[in-house]
Each structure stands twice: as structure tokens, then as C-alpha cells.
User: What shape does this take?
Amino acid sequence: MHDLLFILFSLLIVVFGVLVVAGKNPVNSAMFLVPLMICVGGLFVLLGAFFLAAIQILVYAGAVMVVFLFIIMLLDMDVEKGRRINSFAAVAGIGSSGATLGLLILALTRSDLGAAGGGESTLQGETIPLGKLLFTDYVLPFEILSVLLLVAMVGVILLSKKKLQ
Amino acid sequence: MDIGVEAYLLVSMLLFCIGMAGVLVRRNLLIIYMSLELMLNAANIALVALSRFNDNLNGQVMVFFIITVAAAEVAVGLALIVALYRRHKTAQVNELNSLKL
Assistant: This one.
């Protein structure tokens, strides 16, 4: 069951990823990004990271995608048609990312994952242990992150003013 | 068949390279931005998988931070794209060449 779900989610992730990248219209890409995020959340559940799966679906598939769709609708870009992709750029881009994939797979086959490779793990990323870790070992990054969110909020309000001085 | 850490890392690498191809090939700013999100998600899968197979929650805390930073980044980036669109009336990167000599 676990294996079957893993294969299903992985296939869907790759297929939706290609569709996001290859979509002609930004709206189509955004609509394919939503199930992709949900499949990533499914992989998190298979890995026992339940809290992160919930956050992934709430923040990514919910909030981030709503903002994306809102901006796409706001800009209303239908000037995409008639523009062909530069074929040199396409070959170079796909070639270099394929080469990167080859290098990464080579590194994966050569590397010794050791104890990380085999053993059965029962680690559960539930809210309580994660929260304890977040408020003890990681309390300083957590506070810095809250300041970052505040800065982002102020920056967005400033950027969206009509007249930028 | 036993699903090990390698399988998860392979999915993560595939997703990362798909996102990278999108960033390099596409000319629409919004699709480039979505491809960046794909790359961030690939990193998240790798971190959660390694966290699971090392019996260690630190990787999951890192993913939590990445998701938060990505949300802030999306807000700021999209505001920048809107400001750019207001000024230049385009979201194609090959038309945004006012810094070119």
C-alpha cells in the first residue's frame, strides 16, 4: 500500500511538474501547481511528517496559489500567443538541466547513505515534538522569521502603492 | 519492493530539474516564478526524506522555515511583478531590458 501510494504520488508529481513548466497559459500552470502541491503533501504523509503535510496544503495549495491566481487574473496577460520560445534557449535550458539531473543521479549512486539507507524508521513529525523543538533549539530562527514576515508585509504594502518615490 | 531514501531523493531531483528547466526556458515571469516554487518543493521533499531516514526532526523544522520564507518571498515577488507590469506593461523577461547597455 505504502509503495503503491509512493509510486502514484511520484508519478503525479513529475507529470504535473512537466505540465506546469510546459503550460502555454499561466492560469493553466497555476491550476496544475495546486494538485502538485497536494501530491507533495501526500509524500510528506508517507514520510510521517503529518504537521508539515497540513502546513503544505494550507499554505502552498491554499494561500500561495490563491495569491498567484489573483495576480494572474489582475495582470490579465493574453499577449502570450504569437510568441515563440527561442529554440536555442530551449535546447540549452533542457540540456543543462538534464546534465544537472545526470550529475545528481551519479552522486546518488556513488554516495554511501549508510545507516540512512535501510533501517525502518518510526519517526513521526507530529505537532508536539515539532513544536517543542521549534520553541527550544530553534527559538532564535523562529523569532527572526517573525521579523522577516513583518518586513515582507511592510515591503509589499510599500511596493503596491501607486507612486513609488 | 522496499521504498528507501534513494527513491524519495530521486523524485526530489527530478522535480528540481523540471523546475530548473522551466526557469531557464520559459520567458513568462509568472511561470518562472512557479518553476522556482517547484524547486523549493523539491528541496522540501529531500529534507523531509532525509529527516525521516536519519530519525531526526531537525530537517522537518528546516522545511517549516522554508515554507514560511517561501510564502513571504511569493508575496514580495508578486508585488514586484505587479509594480514592474504597471511600469513596462509586460511580464516577458526578454522585453525587460532597460538595464542593458
Q: What stands out?
A: The helical segments of chain A are 2-22, 26-46, 50-75, 87-110, 115-118, 127-136, 139-159. Chain A has two domains: 1-77, 126-165. DSSP finds seven helices and no strands in chain A. Residues 30 and 149 of chain A are 24 Å apart (CA to CA).
